[in-house]
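ARCHIVE CARD
Drawer: 12
Card no.: 0347
Subject: one protein chain, sequence and derived structure
Cross-reference: see card 0346
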Amino acid sequence: MNLPNSITLTRIFSIPVLIWLLTTKRIHGFHGEQELIASAVFILASITDGIDGYLARKYGQITTMGMLLDPLADKLMIAAAYITLVQVNPHNVPAWIAVLIIGREFLVSGLRSIAAAQGFTIEASDLGKSKMVVQIVSVVAAILAHAWDTWPIPGVTWIFPVDVIAHFAIWFMVALSLISAVDYFWGFWSKIDKQASKARRRRSFVLSRRKKRDITSTQTS
């Protein structure tokens, strides 16, 4: 077990910790303590997504297990976060939003699997990379909104509107998920279409040569 894979496993093991923090009864401490800890766990787990890939590429430790575990850990973490938020904070994360966001993740994974089987890859778009950042913000905002509607800033009269930011982040996440899914599908369809066109031209060329060979054979006989 190399270091990148070990880091990926820590992301998987953080999932039950996140769920426990959000769903268990209040432990002794100040109001919102569990939400703050859960937010920290989710942020750290999300950061490991970039660290394990960077280390694997830098030290040439890309393995079949890593290629399997990394996307699996991402999907499990996002699915666990949104499904749990449906239970604990349906005001900000209704069930249909969770289904849409999780469905988008599996759709993109499916497209990539089909692309790999066809011999080409679908690279992560700028929209897909931006989605990861928005994803972190939306989950953390929804977690914090479970404890606070607003967040008074000590020594300042201004109040941090946690609930409003959570609503905005979640809806922005929905929009970005839909747009990036269309972007991935368009890229996939374009490459499939190009492959089909190349296959048709190659088949046409082979049939043309075969026809010429048959005509030449007939004339010489």
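Annotation on reverse: Residues 46 and 136 are 7 Å apart (CA to CA). DSSP finds six helices and two strands in the chain.
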